[in-house]
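hey so u asked for the seq, here:
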Amino acid sequence: MFDLAFLLVPIFAMFFLGVVLRRTSVLDEGGADTLLKLVFNLTLPALLLSVLPSLELTKNLFWIAIIPALIILLTLPLAMLAGKITGMKPQTAAVLVTGSIIMNLGFVMPFVQSFYGDEGLARLFIFDIPNGLSAYTIAYAFACRSGQSGNNCLNKTLFKSPPLLALTLALCMNLLSLHPEPLTAKILHSTGSLTIPLVLLALGASFSIKKTNLLHLGLGIALRMLLGLSLGLWLADLFNLSGVDRAVVALCASAPAGFNTLTFASVEKLDREFAATLVAACMIASMVLIPILLTTL
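ran it, structure tokens below
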């Protein structure tokens, strides 16, 4: 138990430091966005290029890439049905759908690194491939359909995404047995190591709870985290995953609702207050759930 606390306390401390910095106006919403842009454009690509070229590719990694796609496809119709049954407005139902199928793996990343090191991070990055693809295709399409863009939206950002380009390059290097030169590797490692503290500070600074419908909020948490965890464990057992593979799948599958839920709601004029509260409430629930999973997986 002491070892668990020793690993978890620095993660929670950095997150709550972000909250304090926002409350004391050291970081505002623009500052948090700047931190996330820095991660997206620089430190996360460096981390990918630092970790993935030396990863041993196995059959299990293929299943780890397939599982999130299945989770998304199974969750999507249930989220759509839940929105209809509860009589949500289209703008709120769209947030429920996007929040249910976008996984905030940035929040899970520090825990995976602390407990499973680069081996766990590599698996998280593989898991994130379908998650990222669906966020900018399926989820964004639902946001557009109920938002101001209607059905006439096509997001090309995905194909210019630095993390996606870095991921593709890193996997190609792996397949060709290419590795960065020692000096380059050191620079990549130093830059990539900034990712987790910057993510935690940005998530803390972006934390916001608004007044919202508790039934809608409970549905969003249940669909994203509890259903996600159940599907992740079932699929991991179905594909005979164990050890680090199974643990990372479970942690990622139960991740909080992704920040793109809030981004899409803001851009498309959806129910932004529900989006902000869903993202924040999921993070609170995750702070309770993740330590439980780490002690039982």
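The mean pLDDT is 85. The chain has twelve helices and no strands.
lmk if thats what u needed
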